């Protein structure tokens, strides 16, 4: 079977490369036409625009890869079916799913690659692209100022700790003017004030610390303790979680949340800081499952392409193109509708994100089993 697998892969890889390059160029051209006026108003020069779209390439790749794979698969399978190659292979006792095994492995590999790009590169590339857009703005904050978050406040640990931070450095994680209110395990209120804090060996190390303990009871007098340095192990808030809090605080609408291209890790960090839920809970849960589900579209399109492309009969190759357009349109309409319903709390986030893949994948398997 290795010879057959190599042949089937060779038949797919060339159309896949052409489709991927073509869709990437088309998507960039469409985005340029849409953004050109705004980029000109931002006074970006030719080399800035070129750098901007180089930086945004990972985001485009994540979008066009499933579409390119679907079109390439439909073209390849339709072409094989036209020349009765699929019929001949199946006549030799090879099942359609065995024929599709190399294509399923390609879909699995692309799904993992899309997830990695979406998680590791897309959030950074989006931030870098925004920096390029603001490069020549007279009122933009300086680079040093953008590295600091000012007057940050949040509640974490299920409401157990209330943090107020005057300044927080987004790269070194230095914290100035820290104020933390919490209750100990026996319910005694504590208030910590520190001039500075640093993240060292998975713990916050506070400098020049004053802790006020307010014991219960009418006769209880506050107790003040002073430390030059202090480590508080029960403060489980990590720098990554605080960064996610800062990033989330800057997003006021769902449109901004989507444009921010949050990674799975950033969403999880934010949800860990707010275990009792937030006003963005349904939106974030839908986005979390959406980020997990969307890469597997590459595997789902293989299941969808099999019955449409490998059915017996002499058909026009362009039937594959028409089929791919219709399938993509239906899938994206269903996907965006489901995500919108999940974002506004009409359905559970996991159901909204995974239902399109589940529906199309199941339909592909059922239709493949009926192919003669």
Question: Can you walk through the features of this model?
Answer:
A hairpin with a 2-residue loop joins strand 4 and strand 5 (about 205-215). This protein folds into two domains: about 1-135 and about 290-370, no CATH class; about 160-235, no CATH class. Helix 12 (about 280-295) runs parallel beside helix 15 (about 350-370). The protein is α+β, with helices and mostly antiparallel strands and about 375 residues long. The protein starts with a helix and ends with a helix. The chain has 15 helices and six strands. Strands 1-2-3-4-5-6 form a six-stranded antiparallel sheet.
Features:
372 residues; alpha+beta; 2 domains; six-stranded antiparallel sheet; 6 strands; elongated
- Classify the beta-strand content into a percent band: 15-25%
User: Sheet with the most strands?
Assistant: 6 strands, antiparallel
Strand order of the largest sheet: 1-2-3-4-5-6
Structural domain tally: 2
Number of helices: 15
Q: In whole angstroms, how far apart are the ends?
A: 22 Å
Order of helices and strands: HHHHHHHHEEEEEEHHHHHHH
- Secondary-structure class: alpha+beta
Spatial extent as radius of gyration: 27 Å
Number of strands: 6
- Averaging pLDDT over every residue, what do you get? 82
The helix fraction, in percent, is 55-70%
Shape verdict: elongated
Uncertain segments of ≥5 residues (pLDDT<50)? none
């Amino acid at each position: 079977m290795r010879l057959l697998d190599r042949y089937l892969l060779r038949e797919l890889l060339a159309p896949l490369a052409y489709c991927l390059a073509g869709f990437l160029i088309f998507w960039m051209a469409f985005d340029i036409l849409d953004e050109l006026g705004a980029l000109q108003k931002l006074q970006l020069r030719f080399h800035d625009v070129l750098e901007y779209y180089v930086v945004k390439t990972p985001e485009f790749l994540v979008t066009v890869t499933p579409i390119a794979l679907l079109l390439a698969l439909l073209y390849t399978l339709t072409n094989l079916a036209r020349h009765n190659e699929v019929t001949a292979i199946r006549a030799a006792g090879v099942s359609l799913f065995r024929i599709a095994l190399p294509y399923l492995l390609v879909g699995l590999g692309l799904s993992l690659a899309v997830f990695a790009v979406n998680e590791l590169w897309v959030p950074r590339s989006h931030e870098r692209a925004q920096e390029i857009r603001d490069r020549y703005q007279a009122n933009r904050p300086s680079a040093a100022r953008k590295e600091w978050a000012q007057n940050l406040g949040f509640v974490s640990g299920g409401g157990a700790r209330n943090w107020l931070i005057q300044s927080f450095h987004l790269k070194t994680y230095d914290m100035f003017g820290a104020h933390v209110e919490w209750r100990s395990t026996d319910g005694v209120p504590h208030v910590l004030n520190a001039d500075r804090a640093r993240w060292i060996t998975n713990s916050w190390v506070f400098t020049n610390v004053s802790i006020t303990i307010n014991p219960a009871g009418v006769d209880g007098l506050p107790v003040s303790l002073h430390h030059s340095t202090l480590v508080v192990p029960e403060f489980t808030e990590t720098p990554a979680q605080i960064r996610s809090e800062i990033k989330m605080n800057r997003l006021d609408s769902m449109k901004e949340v989507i444009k921010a291209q949050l990674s799975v890790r950033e969403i999880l960090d934010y949800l860990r800081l707010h275990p009792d839920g937030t006003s963005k809970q349904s939106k974030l849960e839908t986005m979390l499952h959406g980020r997990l589900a969307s890469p597997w579209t590459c595997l789902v399109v293989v299941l969808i392409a099999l019955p449409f492309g490998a059915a017996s009969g002499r058909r026009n190759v362009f039937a594959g193109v028409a089929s791919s357009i219709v399938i993509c349109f239906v899938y994206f309409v269903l996907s965006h509708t489901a995500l919108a319903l999940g974002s506004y709390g009409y359905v559970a986030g996991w159901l909204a994100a995974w239902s399109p893949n589940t529906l199309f994948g199941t339909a592909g398997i059922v239709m493949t089993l009926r192919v003669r």
